[in-house]
Amino acid sequence: MTQVTINETDDSVPEAPLYALTDVTRSFTKGGVTVNALRGINLEISRGETISLEGPSGSGKTTLLQLLGALDSPTTGQIRFAGRSLEDESDKVLTEIRSREIGFVFQQFNLIPTLSADENVAIAMAPREPSHEKRQTRAQELLEQVGLGDRRGHLPSRLSGGEQQRVAIARALANSPEVIIADEPTGNLDSANAKELMSLLDELQRRSGVTIIIATHDEEVAGHARRRIRIRDGSLASDSRP
Amino acid sequence: MFSLSYAWNELRRRIGRTIVTAIGLAAGVGLVMAIIGVSQGLSDAQGKALSPLKSVGTDIIVTRTVAPTLSTATTTTTLPNGFGGGPGSGGGFPGGNGGGGFFARGGSLNNSDTAALAAANSSVITDLAKLGPAGTKFTHDFFVPGTLITFPTQAVNTVARIKGVTGAVGALSLDALHESGTVPKITASIKTGSQTISTTVKPPVLTAAQQAAERTCIEGIINKQLGSTTTTVPGSGTGGSSGGTPPSGGIGGGGFRFGGGDTSAFAKCLTPAQKAYQQNVVIPERTVTQVLNPPSTNTSTSTYTVAGINPAVTGSGLVTKAQLVKGAWLSATPSVAKSQVLVTTAYASQKGLKVGQTLTINKVGYTIVGLVNPTLTGDVSDVYFSLSNLQSLSSNTSRINEVLVSVASSKDVSRVAKAIKAALPGATVLTSASLADQVTGSLANARKLANDLGGALAVVVLLAAFLIAGLLTLSSVSKRVREIGSLRAIGWSRGRVVRQIMAETLGIGVAGGILGIGVGAAICLIIGAIGPGLSVTSTGLAVGASKVSGLIGQTTSATVAHTVHLTAPIHPSTILIAFAGALLGGVIAGAAGGWRAARLSPASALRDLG
Questions:
Q1: Whole-angstrom distance, CA of residue B406 vs CA of residue B316
Q2: What is the per-residue pLDDT across B501-539, written as a single tens digit (0 to 9) for each?
Q3: What are the backbone angles phi and psi of residue A218, rounded to the nearest 5°?
Q4: 20 to 30 Å CA-CA from A57: which of A167, B30, B98, B252?
């Protein structure tokens, strides 16, 4: 077990980490067999970091991502996010946290196929912003930020993979989250588009200081991260800052 | 709550699924509409055919039938003169038409009632001998009350006084028997006489005194005759000699002259027994059998029904002015109405009668002033006279056999019916509800079927539609696991996801409802256009079943068979029900989909994705 504490600047006033995971385990029971997906993770993540989560399939990356994304609760251990514990929170509170603090980018983009690009972005604001107009305006701004201002009315099926993923990034940014969790964001993109996407994420991170956690197999993508965490068999194998 | 544009886009862009689900709901809703429409159509048909009292402005009919009716009334009701027998007497219906009490205390038909009924119906016997000389063509109409016993018209007033009764009108409904033919020669030749009756008579023997008296008398006469005869011509006597004394000269030689003299003189000398003799002769008893030729007749008999109505009352009664199809109503002036009749369209077409024609009954001509089409189940008669006219024609002066009662409110019907039964013990009180039970035929069967199965069928069809919509939505939600998981991941609560799916299925429900109303309306219109026929058979009032016509093996038009064409009307309530059904289907489908979606945890959605 490795406990890693990273501060952006050593001389700054110590700030409470965005995430603090203590002895987090997560096990699933399937057909009477218990699978220990995570086996005692201790991890701290500070605001503004760009982190890559690497590891082979079945190593527990996605499970860790789910816990970090407040999509799931640990079997044992503690997860503190932005100063509060997530492990005992209700579905309602976790939903609220996801809505306000966390943005997701998925490998399959996961856009709503029946909604246009701007509607897909706006729909993420629906729980918090009652005004349809305000949502649309903000969606338009975000699409412009990701370079799709002129494609706002297009359905996902009319957009390329790279464009769809940029819409997904715009959606992830819709509620100005603390953290963006991206699961294999370039998995379905060609290398040129993947490169472009990573540049976009870098730029967003620079501009907004948002924390970005990316699960990836892609070395090139992982290379964009300033901190690389490797997982093997449900445990942290390495945690390094190149 | 939910995103309207999202729901709209879902429906619009997944148009195939929307249409299939909506069609499923529409089919169900349309079928339900058709079932309701047909059921409504059957109700309407029943309303027309089975609730005749309403259409003649009548809620209750009061009659008195032969059918035994039990009354539990124990109170003594003060009835007008001529009503009712003594309490407990069991009488109350003296024979003939005379002043019959209305209803027997104790209710059931008693011997005197039966006798009255028999007497009332006895006039149906035709005495050929009284119809005129042989060869005379005759027609004769008899009016008999059948099993519907008459009672004094005062009953109308009794009923009218009951609280809640807004109108009561009396009517006389009779069976008519029409006979026509030629008076036959009714003669028989019976041979009598040519009989020999012999008897031996033995006169009584004279007593000695009688003999002496007779001798003295004869001698006196002889002596007298001898004394007056001066000349005697010997041997000239013509008569027989009494003999005895041999003729002698001088005196004899002659006989008594009876012939030329007074021959009756000796008769005076006879004894009374010799003068007149009497004896009884008994002819032995025997039977004479002789074949007689029966009179040859061509008498034919037909029956029809007649009713007497009050021409002044046009809104209620056995037939109303509203049911006048052609011509005019009976005149309110009795002297004019006396020669007028109304006939039903059915009877007119059967007999080829037209307005203006004359209907001859018992040698009196009646002008047909109008054709009427009374309702099916009521006491339908063929010919309608003015009440007073029929009363005098049928020797039922001031007597009726039906009271048609209208009641202020339909809620009062049963109460008023009870009050009538109490006021007129033994009365048969019919309401619309009891009349409807007497109707048979395919309409009644269909109605029964609709009642028994219609509701269940509608429920089954609707449930099937809901099931289809629910399954389609469930399948749709299952295909949207990634989408719903993503929504949950980006901060949509369970409730919001469920509401969103509900909104979509409600939209499908609205579409299905609109489509279903179209489908249902089309089915209803097609049913209406085809108009399948349903037969309705009614025996009319309870009296109809056992009228005189039945006794002689004929049916009258009082037993009516009609064909009613089925329609499937679309009432606003049906449309509302259909629409509500479709919306309910949408809600149920949404609940199914929502339940499925709510069970998706955002984590498993991501796992599914990842």
A1: 8
A2: 899 889 989 999 999 999 999 999 998 888 777 776 655
A3: -85, 120
A4: A167
How many A-B residue pairs are in contact by the CB < 8 A criterion? 96
Segments in chain A below pLDDT 70 = 1-14
Answer for the pair A119, A140: CB distance below 8 angstroms, yes or no. Answer: no
CA–CA distances in Å: residue B497 to residues A66, B477, B596 = 20, 11, 11
CA B24/CA B9 separation, integer angstroms: 21
Q: Would you place residue B471 in the very low, low, confident or very high pLDDT band (cuts 50, 70, 90)?
A: confident
Helix or strand or coil: residue B349?
helix
Residues 6+ apart with CB under 8 A from B402: B61, B62, B63, B148, B170, B171, B172, B173, B318, B379
Which two structure tokens, joined as six digits, stand for B73? Answer: 């009334």
Strands B533-538 and B560-565: antiparallel
- Number of Cβ atoms within 10 Å of the Cβ of B470: 23
CA distance B208 to B206: 6
Model pLDDT for residues B390-428, shown as the tens digit of each residue:
888 887 888 888 888 888 777 788 888 888 888 888 788
Is B607 exposed, middle or buried, given 0-12, 13-18 or 19+ CB atoms closer than 10 A? middle
Selecting from B10, B489, B601 the residue whose C-beta is nearest the C-beta of A104 gives: B489
How far apart, in whole angstroms, are the C-alpha atoms of residue B478 and residue B593? 8
Helices (H) and strands (E) in chain B, counts: 19, 16
Question: Is the Cβ–Cβ distance between B406 and B59 less than 8 Å?
Answer: yes
Burial class, A59, CB count within 10 angstroms (exposed 0-12 / middle 13-18 / buried 19+): buried
Q: Whole-angstrom Cα distance, residue A61 to residue A4?
A: 17
Residue B480 CA, chain-centre distance (Å), reads 72
A39 contact partners, CB below 8 Å, separation of at least 6: A25, A233, A234, A235
The shortest C-alpha distance from B573 to chain A (Å) reads 37
* Three-state DSSP string of A157-199: HHCCHHHHHHHHHHHHHCCCCCEEEEECCCCCCCHHHHHHHHH
CB contact residues (below 8 A), chain A span 139-168, against chain B: 155
DSSP state of B149: -
Displacement of CA B209 from its chain's centroid (Å): 90
User: Contact, A167 vs A121, CB < 8 A?
Assistant: yes
Q: How many CA atoms lie within 13 A of A134 on its CB side?
A: 10
Best of B477, B486, B490, B600 to disrupt the A interface by mutation (most A CBs within 10 Å)? B490
CA distances from A10 to A240, B399, B417, B582 (A): 16, 124, 104, 67
Interface pTM (ipTM) of the complex?
0.89
Is residue B561 a contact partner of residue B380, using CB atoms and an 8 Å limit?
Answer: no
| CB-CB contact of B143 with B174 (8 Å) | yes
* Contact yes or no for A110 and B10 at CB 8 A: no
What are B's interface residues with A at a Cβ cutoff of 8 A?
Answer: 3, 5-6, 9-10, 12-14, 482-483, 485-494, 496, 601-603, 606-607, 609-610
Map tokens 């042989």 to a residue: B134
pTM over 0.80: no
Mutate which: A104, A131, A142, vs B, most B CBs within 10 A: A104
Please state, in angstroms and rounded to a whole number, the distance separating the CA atoms of residues A204 and B113: 111
The string of DSSP letters for A64-119 reads HHHHHTTSS--SEEEEEETTEE-TT--HHHHHHHHHHHEEEE-TT----TTS-HHH
What pLDDT is recorded for position B75? 33
Of A62, A96, A104, the CB nearest to B607: A62
